[in-house]
Design brief:
Layout lengths: L4 H8 L1 E4 L7 E4 L1 H4 L2 H14 L6 E5 L2 H13 L2 E7 L7 E8 L2 E8 L8 E9 L3 H12 L3 E10 L14 E6 L1
Enzyme class: transferase
Protein name: Adenine phosphoribosyltransferase
Subunit structure: Homodimer.
Length: 175
């Protein structure tokens, strides 16, 4: 019997109240990723949703890298690493965005794909949407097309989808 990815996530997701500060409920996907069957189910779910629609997958640092590598392998496509600021050599595009308590910067190396390449953005959690929206802006500034967003867990009460724009969002579990 094949267990759906959502059931794996519900079963293995760990929650830590008051981390990293009081009033925050931290949702930890590491136990999900540490289970080989669950990880495969997640990769299969995200890959299937967008099958044939993308030429490359962009993973957002850090856990998005895990997902992008798995999807890239499964779909036999290119993998792009969207890194935190200051981590990439050469010519990069930079996008600043707001966090709940400050700001951050993401970067993407230029010229990795032909112009017009279709890119799927993946990350572990969709919260306020700032990181995914910044990534979508980087993808578009690089001359690529964002065809969709895939995440394992969406924190629906934070309404991150509203910041992403028109790209379809596929979520395995929404809480």
């Amino acid at each position: 019997m094949i267990i759906p990815a959502a059931q794996h996530v519900h079963t293995l997701l760990a929650s830590y109240p008051d981390f990293p500060q009081p009033g925050i409920l931290f949702r930890d996907l590491n136990p999900v990723f540490a289970d080989a069957v669950a990880f495969r189910a997640i990769i299969d779910d995200l890959s299937e949703r967008y099958r044939g629609q993308f030429d490359a997958v962009a993973g957002i640092e850090a856990r998005g890298f895990l997902l992008a590598a798995g999807i890239g392998y499964a779909a036999q496509c290119a993998v792009l690493a969207v890194r935190k600021g200051g981590k990439l050599p050469g010519t990069v595009l930079t996008e600043e965005y707001d966090l709940e308590y400050g700001s951050a910067r993401l970067e993407l190396e230029v010229g990795q794909l032909p112009a017009g390449s279709r890119v799927l953005i993946v990350d572990d959690v969709l919260a306020t949407g700032g990181t995914v929206a910044a990534t979508a802006r980087l993808i578009e500034r690089a001359g690529y097309l964002t065809i969709g967003v895939g995440v394992v867990l969406e924190l629906a009460e934070l309404d991150g989808r509203s910041r992403i724009g028109d790209a379809p969002v596929h979520t395995i579990v929404s809480v």
